[in-house]
Amino acid sequence: MVESIAALDGLLITGHSGLLAGTCIASTLGWKPVEMLRVGDKVLTFDNAMQPIADIQRESLRLPDTGLPPRYRPLRVPEGALYNRRDIWLMPDQGMLIECEAALDTCGDPYAVVPARYLRGFRGIEAGIPTDTFEVTTLAFRQDEVIYVEGGLLAYCPQPRQLLDDIGPGRGQVYDTLVGPAAQFLVNCLIDDDDGDALGGNPADVPGLPRGPIRPGRPMAPNPFD
């Protein structure tokens, strides 16, 4: 089942990205479960302060228990690996922002985006199946944005594109998205240095985030930072 709430007519969010239900997002109401967000709600971005959500797509997925290669499975980030106070899950193509010297050496910029599937093996992150059926929410804005999610992680949300757009490398992108050997090299550097701060920061240090209570979410998705 796919639920698409399109505020940007004719545009699509593509790829095996998105955030699983229960993942909390930094918003004007504090840390709010992603499934409770609606078009127009404002969330905290890395570059442009609070920005309204322009498009939401939700999909219920069921993955086979066997025969699915690890690169197509969600990634489990174990409790405490990156300041997260409980296990969280990432879709394999969900871009995650990394800040480190290796990115500067590779790209000429200390910031780079890497699909979550390349994080396997870093601080116990592993591929798996969260439940028989799970909901994935993909957020988009009127420009490419990076948003704060649980544990101080930074998730890349690309601007929706026209289906037939020519979106060659770097077109309108603020950050380089690394794949293949370049992405694996960067993650290997993080593994060698055990550099958790390159991917996650203490949620208490997230700037400009309200500290008030949030509306209750699903039982599986309590506010982890209260």
Secondary structure blueprint with pairings:
Layout (H helix, E strand, L loop, with lengths): L1 E5 L4 E2 L6 E2 L3 E4 L2 E4 L8 E4 L3 E4 L2 E8 L12 E3 L10 E3 L4 E5 L1 H7 L3 E5 L10 E2 L5 E8 L4 E5 L3 E5 L3 E2 L17 H14 L33
Antiparallel strand pairs: 1-8, 2-17, 3-14, 4-5, 6-7, 8-14, 9-10, 9-13, 11-12, 15-16
Highlighted features:
226 residues, mainly beta, 2 helices, 31% strand, globular, disordered N terminus, Hedgehog/Intein_dom, Hint domain-containing protein, Hint_dom_sf
Q: Could you describe the 3D structure shown?
A:
The structure is a single chain. The N terminus and C terminus are likely disordered. With about 230 residues, the protein is mostly beta strands. The protein is built from 2 helices and 17 strands. About 10% of the residues lie in helices and about 30% in strands. A hairpin with a 3-residue loop joins strand 15 and strand 16. The radius of gyration is 17 Å and the shape is globular. The longest helix has 14 residues. It has a 4-stranded antiparallel sheet with strand order 1-8-14-3, with no helix packed on it. It has a 3-stranded antiparallel sheet with strand order 10-9-13, with no helix packed on it. It has a two-stranded antiparallel sheet with strand order 2-17. It starts with a strand and ends in a 33-residue tail after the last helix.
